[in-house]
Design a protein that fits this description.
about 350 residues; TIM Barrel; Type Iii Antifreeze Protein Isoform Hplc 12; two-stranded antiparallel sheet; 12 strands
């Protein structure tokens, strides 16, 4: 299968296509749908390709004890973990409202489906792709069921080993060729020494027929930009309107100006990556005209003389002569004209020299 696929309608990922940038709103909307809409608009204005949320059907994601346990964190929105999560969870109609708003805004809309029922709902509203969170990337039964839906998938790999990710790849690939894997470390915020960007290259070797990307939780934008330089074709970063807001994800998120700077930096790096073909570019012509060197006669050379290295020098010369890298090909060839000292040696002055010299 090709390394590229259509992640969203009209938007290919992989190969030489632009990096797909996901603004992970997650639950940084504080449970307020108007803030969620502001964040969708912000993601669009900053240049992101997609605004992403997190969808759970709480009774299918957590057991009763998990929902009833006390939650006393400073980030809590309720006395129990269930109350906290219910405060942050939008219902189906709210999701449809947000999706409609994103469509009107002109940005792709999707979510991580944290359980089978959430995935079914996301399929129902026809999101363009499904995001698999790191916590579910080793949930092979869930992966298989999700892959069988035939919707493109983006799979994060935090907390997993390479052996597990091989099983993830095999499980999804059997049912769905249109997916990518993101290098990820599940810590918030993430310290640079734990990012492990070299895994991107290892994934590229292990899974050469799918795009590889990066999901980051670090502070700043530099590491994510480096991931793109290393070949990440999809990147995901949490975003917020204010890092000081209540919520554990805000400190590892990008504020609007940071997101805008990240998008700008990624697009600059993509331009800088180029084609991979090494040649003199048109923009270098001026410099080459002024500074490019040629082979010249170190001393006067009589017609018919066989050239040796001690007769030749390399200088910036007018007119332009034989290129310096061809100097060794001149040795032993006879000159067809008298060449004064310090004169450029051109291909036409050397017997059987031709244009290759």
């Amino acid at each position: 299968m090709p390394l590229t696929f259509e992640l969203c309608p009209g938007r290919m990922v992989g190969g030489h296509h632009p990096c797909f940038i996901i603004a992970e709103i997650g639950q940084n909307h504080q449970g307020d749908i108007e803030i969620a809409k502001q964040m969708i608009r912000m993601a669009k204005e900053c240049g992101a390709d997609c605004a992403k949320f997190q969808k759970s059907e709480l009774e299918h994601r957590f057991n009763r004890s998990a929902l009833e346990r006390p939650y006393n964190s400073k980030h809590s929105w309720g006395k129990t973990y269930g109350e906290h999560k219910r405060h942050l969870e939008f219902n189906h109609e709210q999701y449809r409202e947000l999706q409609k708003y994103a469509n009107e805004t002109g940005i792709f809309f999707t979510a991580s489906g944290w359980d089978d029922m959430a995935v079914d709902f996301l399929q129902e509203i026809k999101v363009p792709f499904l995001k698999i969170a790191s916590a579910d990337s080793n949930n092979l039964q869930y992966l298989e069921r999700t892959a069988k839906k035939g919707i493109p998938m983006v799979v994060s790999s935090g907390m997993q080993s390479m052996e597990t990710m091989r099983r993830v790849y095999q499980t999804v690939k059997e049912h769905n060729p249109n997916f990518c894997i993101l290098q990820c470390t599940s810590a918030y915020p993430l310290e640079p020494e734990d990012v492990n960007l070299r895994v991107i290259a290892e994934y590229q070797k292990e899974f050469p027929d799918i795009p590889i990307g990066y999901s980051g939780h670090e502070s700043g934008i530099e590491i994510t930009v480096a991931a793109v330089a290393l070949g990440a074709k999809v990147v995901e970063r949490h975003v917020t309107l204010d890092k000081s807001w209540k919520g554990s994800d805000h400190s590892a998120s990008l504020e609007p100006q940071e997101l805008k700077d990240l998008v700008t930096a990624i697009r600059t790096v993509e331009r800088a990556l180029g084609s991979g073909i090494k040649r003199m570019l048109p923009c270098e012509t001026s410099c080459h005209s002024k500074l490019g060197k040629s082979v010249v006669a170190k001393k006067a050379i009589a017609k018919g003389t066989a050239l040796s290295l001690d007769m030749l020098a390399v200088k910036v010369a007018e007119p332009r002569g034989v290129a310096p890298e061809e100097i060794f090909q001149l040795v032993g060839k006879k000159v067809t004209v008298d060449i004064p000292e310090d004169e450029s040696i051109t291909a036409e002055m050397v017997a059987s020299c031709g244009k290759k010299v």
